[in-house]
Amino acid sequence: MGSSSPLTRRNRAPSSVLLIFLGFILCFSHSSNAQSKPAFACDVDTNPSLAAYGFCNTDLKMEYRVADLVARLTLQEKIGFLVNKANGVTRLGIPTYEWWSEALHGVSYVGPGTHFSGLVPGATSFPQVILTAASFNVSLFQAIGKVVSTEARAMYNVGLAGLTYWSPNVNIFRDPRWGRGQETPGEDPLLSSKYASGYVKGLQETDCGDANRLKVAACCKHYTAYDVDNWKGVERYNFNAVVNQQDMDDTYQPPFKSCVVDGNVASVMCSYNQVNGKPTCADPDLLAGVIRGEYIVSDCDSVDVLYKNQHYTKTPEEAAAISINAGLDLNCGSFLGQHTEAAVKAGLVSEAAINKAISNNFLTLMRLGFFDGDPKKQIYGGLGPKDVCTPANQELAAEAARQGIVLLKNTGCLPLSPTSIKSLAVIGPNANVTKTMIGNYEGTPCKYTTPLQGLAGTVPTTYLQGCSNVACTVADVAGATKLAAEADVTVLVMGADQSIEAESRDRVDLNLPGQQQELVTQVAKASKGPVLLVIMSGGGFDITFAKNDAKIAGILWVGYPGEAGGIAIADVIFGRYNPSGRLPMTWYPQSYVEKVPMTNMNMRPDTSNGYPGRTYRFYTGETVYAFGDGLSYTKFSHSLVKAPRVVSLRLGENHVCRSSECQSLDAVGPHCENTVSGFEVQVKVRNGGDREGIHTVFLFTTPPEVHGSPRKHLLGFEKIRLGKMEEAVVKFKVDVCKDLNVVDEIGKRKIGLGQHLLHVGDLKHSLSIRI
C-alpha cells in the first residue's frame, strides 16, 4: 500500500477495515455539498474548560504537552491511538482522527481520510511520479509537494481530508516488471533521494519558517527492499527479500536516509515483506537502529500479515508485542487495537512501550496544530475550496508533464508543423483515455485533457481506438491501416494501464501487450506519412522493433502524464515545448527478464552463474534505452572548464595506509574533514541549435574497481535553460568523502584510491585520488 491500496490490501481487505471505509463513504454521501467541520482537539471556544489541560496550552513545549496528554489516558484509551482510525476521547475533547490519507501525486481518494464532494469535486492530479522524476528537476519536485499540501489543507478545513499523508514511495525501481515502479522516482539512489527530500519538503514545510511545525505530515515508504508485489505466484505478503549488506546500504537505503536526514520526514512506513528472514515491521535493527521518522507506521495489516501469512509468531499477542517493541508506533488496520491489551496482561509488552509509541504519534499531531484549537485561527485557516484546482495549480500539472516527457527517437520529422499538416491520424488504445493518465493512488482530477483532445486542438484529426483496451487481444489492423494510409502523419498512442502493471500486479514480460506490436508494425507499413509512437506506461518496454523501424520517425515515452497529459503531449509534438525529459530507469530487452528472476535482489553481476546485475550502475548488457536517455529539438555540447587531475588526502602519521598499500580509505575521519577533500567541476554547456532548450547536465563517475564498485554512478545533475547559440557554465561541488565513496562488502563507505573517471555527456576526465 502506500500504504497498500484503496481498500487496505487490494486483494484481501479484512472486513473490519472494509466496513470502516464503507462507513466513511456512506457518511459523506448524504451531504455532498455540505461543509463539515475539520477534526481537531482543544476546541476551547466550544468548551472553555479544555484550556486547563496542559496538552491544550500552546505556550508550553510540545514534548511537555504530549507527556501531559499521555498521563491522562487509560490503557484502553492509549491502545485506541495505536491504529489508523484513532479513537477519540470525548472527556478530553479529542475527536476521532483518521491517519490514512494518500498524496502520491495529488490529493487522493485512496484511504479513508480523504473524500471528494460537491464542495471540492476534484484536486490537481499531477503526473505519476516516474514521469515527474524524468524531469530531473528538484525545484519541480518541491513545487508539486507545496501545491499538494496546500490543496490538502484546503480540503482539511472543510472536513474532507486529514493532515497525515502516506506518501511518497521512494523504493528503488530495481526490476522493470514491478507493477509499482510507476509510483517511484526510478532506479537511481541519488535521483530517488533528491526526489524524496524535495517532495517531502514541499509537503511539510510551513510558510512561517518554524521547523517544529508541519503543513501536512509526509511518510516515506515502503521500508525497505520492497519491490515485489505478485510475480509468478510470489506475493509481497510472503516474500523474503534476501539482501546483502552492501546492496542494502548502497542501493536500497539511501532514499530513506535522505527522507529523514535531508527532508526531516515525519513518518516512515515499514513494508509487508521480510528482509533476511525478519518482517520489517518487527525488526528493531531496522526500525529503531537505522531509521527514525517522528512516527513509524505499518503498511496496512502488516502486523496481521506477519502473524497470519508469515507465521512469524505463534500468537497474535506476540505479534503485537514484537512490533511495538521493535519500534512500530501506528498500525494501519485494527490488529494492535484488538491484541495489545492482552499482550500487556501477558507481560509481552509494557505500558511504557505503548506510551512511547503514542507519544511519537501525538508529537506529529502537535506539530500539525491538531491540538491548537480551531484551525481557522491558524496559519492555513484561510484556505478552502477556492484554493483547490486553481489555474496556476493546473498549469503546474501540465508543466510537470511537459518537463517529464522523454523523446527517445527522432529521425528529423519532429516537431511537427501545424500549418503543413492537413490530416493527422490518431490511433491506439491509450489515445483517448482519461483515468489511465493519472496512474494509481489517484484522486478525482480537476479535469482531463486526453492525447486526442490535445492533438485535435491543433490540427484536424481522425481517430480509431485500434484495440478495445490495452490488452489488445484483437486489433483492428484493417481500420487502422486505412486511416494511416490517408493521413499526412499518424500518431499511435500505445502502452499500458493498471490492468497491466499495478499494485499486486507485476508483469511477466516486457513486450507490448497483446496485438499492440502487430498493430504498430502494420500501421507503419501502410502509412502515407511519418509515424510517431507514443508509449504511455510506468515501466519500460522492449520496443526494439520500433526503434529499428525506419517508417517510425519518432518515439516518445509519456509515463502516466496526469490530468493535463494531452496538453503536454501536443505541446511537445508540435514544438511549443522542446522536450527535456530523461529516462529515470533502464529499458531492458525481453531477453533480460527471461533469464533474471524478479526475486533475486542482488544488484551486482555474478560471473559464476551469468547473472547480469541490475540498473545502469551494475548492468553491462544490451539495453533498448539507457538510464538518462532523452533527446531535444536542439543540440547541446559540453566542454570542461575546470576539474582537478589529482586530489591528495592527508593521513595522520600513524594511519595504517602510510605503511601498507591500501586500495581504499574509510569515508570518515580526519582526512575527510580537510578542505582539500572537496573540489569543483565546471562545465560549459552550449546550445548550438536554432531554438531555446532545457538541458539536464549529468555528472557521473566510474570509480576504481574496488569493493565491487558501480560501473557508473550519478554524482549530480543540474537543469539549465539556454537560448539558441547561448552558452553557460554549470558548476558541481564534489566532496571526495561524501560523493566519491563506494560501499564495501560489509556496508562501510570507502574512498577508492586510484583513477576515477568523471563523465559529462561525451566528455571524460580522469581524476586520481591518492594519499
TrEMBL record:
A Pfam short name: Glyco_hydro_3
InterPro entries, per the entry: BXL, Fn3-like, GH, Glyco_hydro_3_C, Glyco_hydro_3_C_sf, Glyco_hydro_3_N, Glyco_hydro_3_N_sf, Ig-like_fold
Keywords: Glycosidase, Hydrolase, Signal
Protein name (database record): Fibronectin type III-like domain-containing protein
Annotated Fibronectin type III-like domain residues: 695-764
Signal sequence region: 1-34
